[in-house]
Amino acid sequence: MLKIAWTEIYAHPLPKNHRFPMEKYNLLPEQLLYEGTVSHENFFAPAALPEGLVLRTHDANYWKKLKSLSLDRKEERKTGFPLSQQLVAREVTIMNGTLMAAKYALEFGIAMNIAGGTHHAFTDRGEGFCLLNDIAIAANYLLDEGLAKKVLVVDLDVHQGNGTAQIFEQEPRVFTFSMHGAANYPMHKEKSDLDIGLPDGIEDDAYLKILRENLPRLMDAVAPDFVFFQSGVDVLATDKLGRLGMTIAGCKERDRTVLQTCFNNNIPVVASMGGGYSQKIAHIVEAHANTYRLAQEIYF
C-alpha cells in the first residue's frame, strides 16, 4: 500500500503577498482523494520528530535558537518565513513524516510525504523556505539503525540541494546528486557528489536525455540500497522562480524515470514534495499529483 505523510498543520498563516503557496499542501491530497488515486487509508499523520533525532543532524545551538524563536533578523530573513511556534511545529512534523515514510518504503517499496524536500536547510542554519532537512534526518536514521548501508539522494528540484550537500560532504555512505538550474538560487552552490547545472529554458527532451544518461549510471556506480527523491515541480516553464522550460508532461516523465528505475532495481524510495511556484495553483497541484499517480501505477 502507498503510504503518504499528511497533516492539517500545514495551514500556517503567512502574509497575503508571500510567494510560498502553502495551500498546495491541502489541495493536493484533496485532489488525489477526489479522483480516486488514493483513499484515506493511504494517509498517515506523523507526530513531532523527537528532539534527539533533530540533533543527530542539526547543530544544537541552531536548534536551540530555532525552537526558542531567537534567530536574528538576518537568519530569519534567509529562511523566507516569519518565525513562529506554529512554523517550528510544522517543520518537526514534516521531518518525522519523511522518517516514517522511509520505514514504510522498506515495507512497501515506496512512500511519500505531502511536504518535505527541505534541501536548503544546513547543519547550522535554514535557508530558502527550509528550517530543518528532512532528507538528511531520515537518511541518518536509516544508516544509524542499520536499515540502509548506502543512500542515494536524487534531487531534481530546480534549486540545488545545497543544505543536503553540506550535511553529507564528509559522509561516504550518502551520495548526493543534484540536477538544477545553473544560474538559479542559490547563487553560491555547495559541492554535491554529482552536480549537473542546467541552462535556463531547457525543455523536456534535453532534460530527460541528461537524466536518463546519468541515473542508470549512478545506480550501477553507487549501488544504493535506499533512494530519497526530491521531486520539486519548480522545473515547469510556468514556475515564477524556476527559469526552466519543462511542461507538466515532461515533469511527469522525469518522475516516471526515477520511480521506474528504483522499482526495476528493487530499491526502496521516498519522494518528498519540494518546490513549486507556478502562478496558477492548478499547475502546481497537477504536476505534484502526477508523482503520486505514477507511484500507484508502477508499484501497486
TrEMBL record:
Keyword Plastid: no
SUPFAM superfamilies according to UniProt: Arginase/deacetylase
GO terms of molecular function: histone deacetylase activity; hydrolase activity
Classification via Pfam families: Hist_deacetyl
UniProt keyword list: Hydrolase
GO biological process: epigenetic regulation of gene expression
Histone deacetylase domain mapped to chain residues: 18-289
Family stated for the protein in its record: Belongs to the histone deacetylase family.
Name this polypeptide is given: Acetoin utilization deacetylase AcuC
Organism of provenance: Roseivirga pacifica
